Amino acid sequence: MTQQSYKIFIDGQAGTTGLQINERLKTHERVEVLEIAPEDRKNLDKKKLLMQEADVTFLCLPDDAAKEAAILAKEAGSRVIDASSAHRCAPGWVYGLAELNADQRAAIKNAQFVANPGCYATGAILLLAPLVQNGVLSADSLISIAGVSGYSGGGNALITDYEEGDNPSSFAMYGLGLDHKHIPEIVKWAGLNNRPTFIPAVANIKQGMFVYFTLDQKTLSKPLKNIPEVYQSAYKGEQTVVFDETCLNFQERFKYIEGIANQNVCQISSFLSEEHGQALVVAKLDNLGKGASGAAVQNMNIMLGLPENMGSTLA
After folding, report:
1. Which of 65, 119, 248, 289 is most buried by a 10 A CB count?
2. Which CATH number characterizes residue 84's domain?
3. How many domains does the chain divide into?
4. Structural domain span for residue 166
5. Which residues are catalytic?
6. In the chain, % of residues over pLDDT 90
7. Which of 315, 313, 310, 314 is nearest to 31 (CA)?
């Protein structure tokens, strides 16, 4: 029996996320990517026709352009996955983090409009949500989050700066106004009542990401020793979020950002000092994989009823 194939349109296919989605879909067995001529990329009539033909439209655009394209897609009757930050907290949009809770996959599967999570937000929420949901961490807690990303997270301009520029920095903090655009979605989807501080940084590596924060027993309602069990239980059976068992016995002297490029997976680690009553929790992911295009393809598969990881990882 011939298996059904699906048509996909990528609006913004020349950007970093759009290019990566397209690369992943080249190996996908069940989809055909609809092409738009370069000169027609801003032609609303041509885009609307492709949206009408597509089973799913990806929006890989700046926020303002994504808002306009979402209106066009709604008129076209297309199902949408928006990779921008425009709709991550918007009414009527489903947040595309399948591992968030027991009901999220079904919500994504049945949605017309799905907002793909931000890269840093993915790591932060996957760390925070189980702790809040299980009462280890109060939703009223004041959390200070840090993160570091490969330079590809800054798009084509930053890639050019690092790969063609003159002596780019090995490590640079940014978001120093404490107003990073991922903070609102972290608050909403992690279930926090208070705005966390978040300081991101960029490292001189193309792909890779850490998101991490510390915890103190004095601020927790359950013992630190429960933290690994909470994560193991929350992500039991998941292929896209895994708990790194090596962290339990400090088998690694260092935690390296490398080693997960092109994969659609987030690796969770927790390092505990019961003696000092402190813990470090870390999410490691590829900012272009589970942090962007890999997650987008995963969401597309869920919406179409296909195997979740089909085409979501680059070889």
Report:
1. 289
2. 3.40.50.720
3. 2
4. 119-289
5. 119
6. 88
7. 310
